[in-house]
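Budget justification aside, the reviewers requested a transparent look at the raw inputs and outputs of the sequence design task funded under Objective 1. We therefore reproduce one unedited record. The lines immediately below are the structure tokens for a 417-residue chain.
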């Protein structure tokens, strides 16, 4: 098996890592813009978490009804990346990104004025489709422009994104208290408009015409198949998807548990959920420094261990009935996820310079696909208690921990030890 993998055209991790675009070194403003673009998909969800119970009451639905808006949004966010990535490899990054940001803006405005749960779901799906272009292309553009430094830059980008996401629930709760729950969707649309104007004015196309892949559907399917036959890529994909599944269970279930079962206010929930996300911030910051020294594989190995141990401790805390013992181990979970997410993306994207959009899209689709899967499972099993919430969170933690160790080629065991 190892000999076959080493001869596979996609298995080499020694392919060129030079920047693809012949342009000056990217500036800080462009990096900040890419962080915003990368963050839009998650920010749209994080902002609305504190208003979920109030919105459910307005639309006359239960927690499971609002769970649908989150789950379908994530599903479209993932599927859209399978489309946006290959389109950008063929037509260039900028036109696909501009189209995506326009859809994101329109979806945000639709959610702001939604008069029924059905119209909110459709608006959120449109917003998710637009956000998918931002997620996949922010990663691909980083690979285009930073070359061999893309791993650390990707980790730094995720650190910036986590800083935004850490404040989003708090900001959403405060804004809803001041201007009503619809103002949260208006803010999301405003961020989309700002990103759209920024891309128009700051970003110059980074994928040269000579490197664009004008391939048909059959060639595209073959490329996906070749990526999925690469065990290293598949290991990073599994770690990314299941780790994000752990995070999504926390994100989508926390409001109903902490506000509904523990009686927290929206502001208290915003403070606590933002505090838990501090682990992501520190994890991604550490990953940005260690990815060059340790490499993506070692970081993912350690990170998945942190995630599993944190969820297990949180579950034991729920058995004691203590809110503090439930939430404190979640800091360990988010710290581990902060190590895994940037390292898995770097390990999955960097070896494929001419397929950065394709690889990034497949990773993003898997990430959102697993989130949708465990979001649906949570919707079926959640009864509002911390125990039902955390049992669902344990499943992707165990699976991601195990699969990464099974899938990573055996010749790298010594390096990972």
């Amino acid at each position: 098996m190892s000999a076959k993998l080493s001869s596979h055209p996609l298995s080499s991790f020694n392919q060129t890592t030079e920047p693809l675009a012949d342009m000056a070194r990217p500036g800080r403003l462009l990096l900040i813009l890419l962080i915003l673009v990368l963050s839009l998909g998650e920010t749209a969800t994080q902002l609305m978490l504190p208003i979920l119970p109030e919105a459910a009451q307005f639309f006359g639905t239960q927690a499971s009804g609002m769970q649908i808006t989150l789950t379908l949004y994530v599903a479209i966010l993932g599927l859209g990346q399978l489309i946006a990535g290959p389109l950008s490899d063929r037509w260039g990054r900028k036109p696909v990104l501009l189209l995506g940001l326009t859809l994101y803006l329109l979806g945000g405005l639709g959610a702001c004025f939604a008069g029924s749960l059905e119209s909110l779901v459709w608006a959120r799906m449109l917003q998710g489709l637009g956000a998918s272009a931002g997620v996949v292309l922010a990663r691909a553009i980083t690979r285009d422009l930073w070359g061999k430094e893309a791993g650390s830059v990707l980790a730094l980008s995720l650190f910036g994104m986590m800083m935004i996401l850490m404040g989003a629930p708090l900001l959403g709760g405060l804004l809803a208290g001041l201007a009503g729950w619809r103002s949260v969707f208006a803010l999301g649309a405003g961020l989309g408009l700002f990103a759209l104007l920024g891309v128009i004015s700051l970003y110059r196309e980074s994928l040269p015409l000579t490197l664009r892949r004008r391939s048909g559907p059959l060639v595209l399917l073959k490329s996906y198949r070749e990526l999925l036959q690469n065990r290293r890529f598949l290991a990073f994909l599994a770690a990314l998807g299941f780790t994000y599944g752990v995070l999504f269970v926390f994100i989508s279930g926390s409001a109903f548990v902490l506000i509904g079962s523990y009686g927290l206010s929206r502001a208290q929930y915003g403070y606590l959920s933002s505090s838990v996300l501090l682990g992501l911030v520190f994890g991604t910051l550490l990953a940005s420094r260690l990815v060059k020294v340790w490499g993506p594989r070692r970081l993912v190995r350690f990170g998945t261990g942190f995630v599993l141990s944190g969820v297990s401790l949180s579950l034991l805390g729920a058995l004691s009935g203590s809110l503090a013992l439930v939430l404190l181990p979640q800091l360990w979970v988010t710290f581990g996820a902060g190590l895994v997410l940037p390292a898995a993306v770097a390990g999955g994207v960097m070896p494929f310079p001419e397929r950065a959009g394709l690889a990034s899209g497949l990773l993003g689709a898997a990430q959102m696909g697993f989130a949708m899967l465990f979001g649906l499972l949570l919707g079926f099993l959640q009864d509002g208690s911390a125990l039902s919430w955390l049992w669902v969170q344990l499943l992707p933690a165990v699976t991601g921990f195990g699969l990464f160790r099974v899938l990573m080629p055996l010749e790298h065991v010594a390096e990972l030890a």
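Residues 231-261 form the longest helix (31 residues). The radius of gyration is 20 Å. Computational costs for records of this kind are itemized in the attached budget.
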